[in-house]
């Protein structure tokens, strides 16, 4: 037993680590985690059995359905990624064995990338990704007029692509990001008749959690690639380290370089030159999302997380 920063304690056994946080969360890790939960935590502390009984306790979660979620909308640098994933009882069991949960609860970036790789294998291709690199994102943001309309189009596009792979998918769940009619209009414009439920904090659903981690893994990988192009590490979020990195890029390469690395409607864009730049606002032209998409299709997602060299070669070929 030993003290734990921001927590009550950390306990280590031969095959299990238990961390109890002041928020009320208890994290159990290690090869003996399942035995610890089943033999001690549930009977002695929780007074209820849940592990291994998810299908009985939450049967709807294991029934065939899709989930979608996004990553990168609050990050100045990097792309916007929307992912959709399909689950059925077999896939749901495989995802639970992996420990899939909301990506926000996975604190390690390396762990998130690893899980996203394993999720791709578990769903056996029954997933889709819409990846908008900064340049394409900035173009579409101007055309759509606001972020929620852009997000709605991206979610509808991801679900539409998933449905091509799994035509029998009966329903979908989306982590709600705007008022329901915003997404409903985008789904109609895509000609999607799939019943879609929108729910706040939907990441507790296994399909949405899988989509969340797929999106986060792709975002992190793309952010790293952009950092290599910029010649420096690009931090996540929109905090002071992000502003300092943006200022450094402006100092080295000029403000135009940010258009290929960042979302320029953020206030950080103006702060990068100490107020000498103005954030780019949306210009709503009254066009439908489908009309915009037909002229500006989104970037194709990567086919794997170990193919950095291949993607860089493709970029070189396109330039030549």
Automatic annotation (TrEMBL):
Cofactor comment: Manganese or magnesium. Binds 1 divalent metal ion per monomer in the absence of substrate. May bind a second metal ion after substrate binding.
Binding positions (a divalent metal cation): 69-70, 175
One Gene Ontology term of the molecular function aspect: RNA binding
E.C. no: 3.1.26.4
Biased composition (Basic and acidic residues): 309-320
Protein keywords: Cytoplasm, Endonuclease, Hydrolase, Magnesium, Metal-binding, Nuclease
Top EC group: hydrolase
Domain of life: Bacteria
Disordered: annotated span: 275-320
Necessary cofactors: Mn(2+); Mg(2+)
Gene Ontology biological process terms from the UniProt entry: DNA replication, removal of RNA primer; mismatch repair
Subcellular location field: Cytoplasm
Reaction catalyzed: Endonucleolytic cleavage to 5'-phosphomonoester
Task performed by this protein: Endonuclease that specifically degrades the RNA of RNA-DNA hybrids.
Family per record: Belongs to the RNase HII family. RnhC subfamily.
Protein name as it appears in the record: Ribonuclease
Gene from which this protein is expressed: rnhC
